[in-house]
Amino acid sequence: EPEVTQTPSHQVTQMGQEVILRCVPISNHLYFYWYRQILGQKVEFLVSFYNNEISEKSEIFDDQFSVERPDGSNFTLKIRSTKLEDSAMYFCASNRGTGGLYGYTFGSGTRLTVV
Amino acid sequence: KQEVTQIPAALSVPEGENLVLNCSFTDSAIYNLQWFRQDPGKGLTSLLLIQSSQREQTSGRLNASLDKSSGRSTLYIAASQPGDSDTYLCASNAGNMLTFGGGTRLMVKP
Question: B72, B23 in Cβ contact below 8 A?
């Protein structure tokens, strides 16, 4: 069964450093997403991406965050200057379409620890 | 703004028992509802997708129901096994994003 692949599985970074989280969505999917889950809290939506641009973003997704699809397979989330409160599990997801016909497929996540 | 709530937050049952997990949502204008399971601190595995026009979906020992008008979904697990122990999340899809509930932590004791 096709999978969403995320790397690395765990990243530790110092406060103020830039991090890039990487994802390879399922090849025939058109919509890409980032979600995060702070320890003990709900999974929260960050951003959706379609046709090489952001289609929707939450209030969490401020100027410190950016997303990019640098080639035909990768989808990245960049945090420019990490803060302690950015420590969370970050999930990438993809979907074949929108409007609810299809379900989301999630990756196994990247655990980001900011020290 | 959509709010999704799951009850109970935690559940412990003996092996073999049938059980029901509950999910409620405040905005009934959803496209679908998806149930996931999550290993502690790990990824999300999709279990069932139920469209807004459907009343229920089944996969093996799992059955999910949806009542849009009352803003409720249930996940029924038949003949529970220790391997079912995990956190179960429901998520409503009202467009281009999912809104997740807080999850139910299930422990099935041998």
Answer: yes
DSSP B95: S
Suggest the residue from A38, A42, A105 to mutate for an interface test with chain B (most B CBs closer than 10 A).
A42
Q: What is the pLDDT of residues B61-100, one digit of tens each?
A: 999 999 999 999 999 999 999 999 999 999 999 878 999 9
DSSP, collapsed to helix, strand or coil, labels residue A8 as coil
Residue B5 contacts A, CB cutoff 8 Å: no
Triad B38, B4, A87: Cα angle to 5°: 50
pLDDT tens-digit readout, B17-72: 999 999 999 999 999 999 999 987 778 999 999 999 999 999 999 999 999 999 99
**Does an H or E element contain A69, and which?**
none
Q: What is the spatial distance between Cα B24 and Cα B71, in angstroms, rounded to a whole number?
A: 5
Among positive and negative, which fits the CA dihedral B57, B34, B55, B80? Answer: positive
User: Do residues A67 and A34 make contact, with C-beta atoms less than 8 angstroms apart?
Assistant: yes
- Alpha-carbon distance values, B47 to A95, B53, B77, B87 (Å): 15, 18, 11, 12
Count of other CB atoms within 10 angstroms of residue A36:
23
Residues contacting A40, CB < 8 A, separation 6+: none
Question: Which of B31, B42, B49 lies nearest to residue A109, judging by beta carbons?
Answer: B42
More confident residue, A70 or A107: A107
